[in-house]
Design brief:
Rossmann fold; six-stranded mixed β-sheet; two-stranded antiparallel sheet
Length: 210
């Protein structure tokens, strides 16, 4: 699953790798990788593959889930597809409550005590993903876990999910993607050390290229 997902992400350029001309993230940090998994929604075969992997994981690990929740914005479409396949209610969670109208942070019908699985497209540090978990818990829901398409596998994310006591499953990850990218000639062997260094210490990698 992890290798097939990585192949798809590289094939449609949902994930791009570039050591020589790093990408600048919203935080201002430099990175050799940029990920936009929303691209996969434009490809029916890949969209269906991702949906089915999510469904299989949920059936295996969270069989008693009652509601599927997508994290805005990347997890909304993916979550709706999964909820449809599982015949479950769907909601989505904003990064913060609206400052107008009903000031909702959670959009859709959900009730205290319901069990929820959260759908995310990408996990970096985990901060934005766990904001959705906090909002659902504040509503009185039981968050069973989270499923995401891809994770960078950063130590800070592992720590954040551990502290929040959230079980995370991903379809693919950074290490697998780099292995596939090397084998499929998306990157040269000379790039591998730099790519490994970024994962080990993204802050230092970025500082050295700023």
């Amino acid at each position: 699953m992890a290798e097939n997902t990585a192949k798809y992400l590289l094939q449609v350029k949902a994930v791009k790798l570039n050591n020589e001309h790093p990408f600048t993230w919203a935080s201002g940090r430099k990175s050799p990788i940029y990920c936009d998994n929303r691209v996969t929604l434009s490809y029916p075969e890949i969209r269906t593959f991702i949906r089915q992997q999510f469904v299989d994981i949920i059936k295996s690990h969270f069989p008693d889930v009652e509601v599927i929740a997508g994290v805005a914005t990347g997890g909304i479409a993916q979550g709706a597809l999964v909820a449809q396949e599982l015949d479950k209610p769907f909601v989505y969670v904003r990064s913060e409550a609206k400052n107008h109208g009903l000031t909702n942070q959670i959009e859709g019908e959900i009730h205290e005590g319901q069990s929820v699985v959260v759908i995310e497209d990408l996990v970096s540090t985990g901060k934005s993903s766990l904001i959705a978990v906090d909002a659902l818990r504040a509503k009185g829901c039981v968050v069973k876990g989270m499923v995401a398409i891809f994770t960078y596998g950063l130590a800070v994310a592992q720590q954040n999910f551990g502290n929040a006591k959230v079980e995370l499953h991903t379809l693919s990850n950074y290490d697998t993607l780099i292995q596939v990218a090397s084998r499929e000639n998306y990157v040269s062997s000379s790039d591998l050390d730099s790519l490994a260094q970024w994962r080990k210490n993204p802050e230092q990698w970025s500082a050295e290229r700023s």
